[in-house]
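[09:14] KT: can someone run the structure on this one? pasting the chain below
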Amino acid sequence: MGLDLLAEAAFENASNKGFHDGKDFTSIEWQLSKIALIHSEGSEVLEALRKEQGEYKVVEEIADILIRTLDFYHSLKTGSVVTSSLDEVYDAKANKNKTRPRMHGVLA
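[09:31] RB: done, structure tokens below
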């Protein structure tokens, strides 16, 4: 299953659970709140590692990042904020990264 289909499934589940009721996906305030939630999931990974909560908890929190990110992407697509395929852009970016020099962008 590709990223676009995973995003659609994440969006559908969130919608079924009421998380998208009455939301304006084009609203910058809504968009920023979703990015903040994705960021908070990253902090939960950090906490799971710091508190040594175990491998499963770490991976579970990483899964939450993916679910929230994919749902956010599909929300933006639903609101016509973006039209690009995540599968296609991901592949293009991954291929671009393959051509970059070792440790590109890292300040020594």
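[09:33] KT: thanks! The helical segments are 3-16, 28-50, 55-78, 86-98.
[09:34] RB: yep, looked fine to me
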